[in-house]
Amino acid sequence: MQGTMLAAAMRGIGQMELLRRPIPVPKEDEVLVRLEYVGICGSDIHYYESGRIRDKAVAFPFVLGHEPAGVVVEVGAKVRHLAVGDRVALEPGKTCGRCEFCRTGRYNLCPEVVFFATPPVDGVFQEYVAHEAALCFKLPDWVSTLEGALIEPLAVGFHAAMQGGARAGQTALVLGSGCIGLVTMMALKAMGVSRVFVTDILENRLEKARELGADGIIHAGREDVAARVAELTHGAGVDLAMETAGSEITARQAIACAKKGAHIVLVGYSASGEMTLPLSLAMDKELTFKTVFRYRHMYPLAIDAVARGKVNLKDLPTHMYSLAQVQQAMDACVHDKSRVVKAVLRIGGDGL
User: Fold this and answer.
1) Residue 322: in which H helix or E strand, if any?
2) Average pLDDT, integer, range 109-126
3) Is the model's pTM score more than 0.85?
4) Where does 144-194 show beta strands of DSSP type E?
5) Does 34 reside within a domain?
6) How large is the greatest C-alpha to C-alpha distance in the chain, in angstroms?
7) What is the CATH number of the domain that holds 167?
8) Spatial distance between the Cα atoms of 83 and 145, rounded to a whole number of angstroms
9) Do the domain assignments include residue 121?
């Protein structure tokens, strides 16, 4: 396909602009996808606000976005499992396939990964993208491309649940009810965890957690989280604590709320990268700590959970913007966190 496309790029800290770029040409093992929806992630917001995350610094212009879904419009010569017209969710990281981590199935740890919207690699706030066909997952007819764009954060939630060994009969606590906290809560429920409680300090996020199936919400700004969890669990504590806010306060609460022998999964990234935690209490409880870096092998599972009605992604977004409204969208995500839980850019759309 020849011609140009619109792309939304950062031209400075807190500044977005629309550019014209050539429509990419797919390689023989790639497909060209006309994007319909792209979610706005917390990492996009960090880059927008500060221009860097740890050692990854943006060079302008830089295109954000790594949560895409759309429709295949061209197919490379070696692609057999996809056809023009297929609706797909795109897994955003291309790995080397050769390193120790790829060869042992832990490809999310590949040191040579090329990941959308991770400098120096541009993201997909744009109309088209050419992407490796093996990383494009066909959506069932009854799963919309809006839901397809949200498979990426849901994959994080399922990976976190898997890291914690989530299973039926457990009680879990999710600390933080932003997007990742919410998808983690839904993943836990889909995996059979009996009761999942969610904390936050923002009322709108807690209400969204309740709407999406939380068994109990705890306003951390008004309630003693550990005391409330003890009340809800009759003094036992939770089997699984998922820290998704990336703060020392919530990490300490996770340890305080955990049952002896429980698992704690650290999902959220802290702004400083460092925390001081009560490790003597963790040792007394013989807690197991796990951490999360993106996900691996989760797209098929996540898509199946949505297709079977185990996870409700349709009601996750709170705000929708067009590509032309990208400046407004990013500013809202930064400055209106009391209302914006999850924002999505509509590039095209199947209307579902």
Assistant:
1) strand 319-322
2) 97
3) yes
4) 171-175
5) yes
6) 65
7) 3.40.50.720
8) 16
9) yes
